[in-house]
C-alpha cells in the first residue's frame, strides 16, 4: 500500500515566482496519510532566502499582472478552471490521501475550486468605479478601483483545494500577485491548483507557493513592505496574532476564523428529513469544517425523538479510508486532534453529559474517532464554549424562541448559524436574530462562489467569495481633474 501511495503522490517542492523548486538540501518534514499513518512524502521548508525570492517575485509579478487587462486575466483563470475539471479524479485522490476526507467530498471540492476561478475570471471585469457630478466647468471627479498589491495568504488543511482557490482567485481577479502558504499537512493539493494556473498561462512571478513553520513564515512575510494584504483562514488566536503583525505595516486583512455553529430545530418540521440533513452536515469531513453544525437545540416537544434519531444515524455512519467509495466519514487530520476530541468528551461527561453514540477511537491504525452524540450537556462543559472541530454533536432541549436565540448567540463566535422551521414568519425572524456572518434557514448550503463567506464577532472580519471577496483585494482612489 505504501508503494502505491508513494507512486500517486507527487514529488514535493514549492513554486517561487511560478518556477518549481525541489527540496534539495532544505529542511523537510513528513507528510502523513491520516487513514494509515504512513509517511507519503517529505515536504521542504522555505528558507529566508527563498522567502526573499518570493517577495521579489511578488513585486515584479504585481506590476506585470495589474497591467494585463481584466478580460485577458480572466481567460487565464478560466483555462485553469478547465484544467482542474479535466484532472478532477486525479486531484481528488491526492486531496483525499493527504487530508483523509472521503473521495466524494474532494471530488466536489475540485469542482468548487474550478467554479471559484470561473467566478473571479468574470467578476474581475466588473471592478467598477464611478464619475461624480461636476462642481465646476471643465473638471472631472472620478472614483476608481485598483488592486491593493501583493497578497500573503495562509490556508488550513480542511479544504486543501477550496481554500487556496478562494484566496488565489480573489487576488488574481483583482489584479494582485500572491504568495500562498498552504497547510503543511496537505501540500500536494495546493500545488495541484498552482500547476493548473501555471499551465493555463499565468505569468511567472505572479504566484508563489511556500511551506515551513507557520509562525516563522508569517512573521517574515508580514514584516516586508512588499506585502499589502493578508488573507488568513484558521484559528482565532492565530488570527489575532497575525492582525497584530499586520498593524505594524497598516496592511489590510481578511480573517476567516473559528466558529461554533448553533442549529435550532423547531417542533413544526419533518423530524426525519431534518435529521438526515443534520447528520450528513455534522460528520462531513469528520466535523473538521469551520461552519460545521455543533450545538444542536431541539424543541422539547421533539427532543427525545431527535436525540434517538440522531443517535441511530450516527451509529450507522461507515467510517474508514476516504479512498473507499463506501466510506461516509474519514479520519481526523492528525493524532493531536484525537487527543483534543477525547478531552472534550471526557470533560463533558465529567460535567454530566450523556454519551448516546461513539465516544472513543476506532480502528488500530489511522486517526479515526467514532461519530459521537452527547445529550444534556451543561454550559459549564468546555465543548459548549470552545469549538471542538471534530465529529461530536451536542444536543440540548429548548422551550421558547427568545431563550434559544439567547443561547445561540451566547458565545463570542459568529461564523455560521442554522435553523429549521416550518413557519415562514419564524424563518424571517431567525434570519434577523441569529448573530452570524452566514445563516442557513432550512438548509446547510451557505457557500457558493457568488455569495460572501465570512464571520462576525471573534469569528473574523471581511469576506471571501462574492463581490466582497474581490473588493477585499481592491483599493479605492479618488481622482480630481481640473
Strand order of the largest sheet: 14-17-18-13-12-20-21
What structural category characterises the helix and strand content?
A: alpha/beta
Distance between the termini: 72 Å
Q: What is the CATH topology of the largest domain? A: Aldehyde Dehydrogenase, Chain A, domain 1
Strand content: 15-25%
Which percent bin holds the helix content?
Answer: 25-40%
What name goes with the CATH superfamily of the largest domain? Aldehyde Dehydrogenase, Chain A, domain 1
Keywords:
alpha/beta; disordered N terminus; Aldehyde Dehydrogenase, Chain A, domain 1; Aldehyde Dehydrogenase, Chain A, domain 2; 24 strands; 39% helix; six-stranded mixed β-sheet; 482 residues
Give an overview of the whole structure.
With 482 residues, the protein is an alpha/beta fold. The protein folds into 2 domains: 2-257 and 460-481, Aldehyde Dehydrogenase, Chain A, domain 1 (3-Layer(aba) Sandwich), CATH 3.40.605.10; 261-457, Aldehyde Dehydrogenase, Chain A, domain 2 (3-Layer(aba) Sandwich), CATH 3.40.309.10. It contains 15 helices and 24 strands. A 7-stranded mixed sheet has the order 14-17-18-13-12-20-21, sandwiched between helices. A 6-stranded mixed sheet has the order 9-8-7-10-11-23, with helices on both faces. Strand 12, helix 10 (271-282) and strand 13 form a beta-alpha-beta unit. Helix 3 runs antiparallel to helix 6 (162-174), helix 4 (88-99) packs antiparallel against helix 7 (187-199) and helix 5 runs parallel beside helix 6.
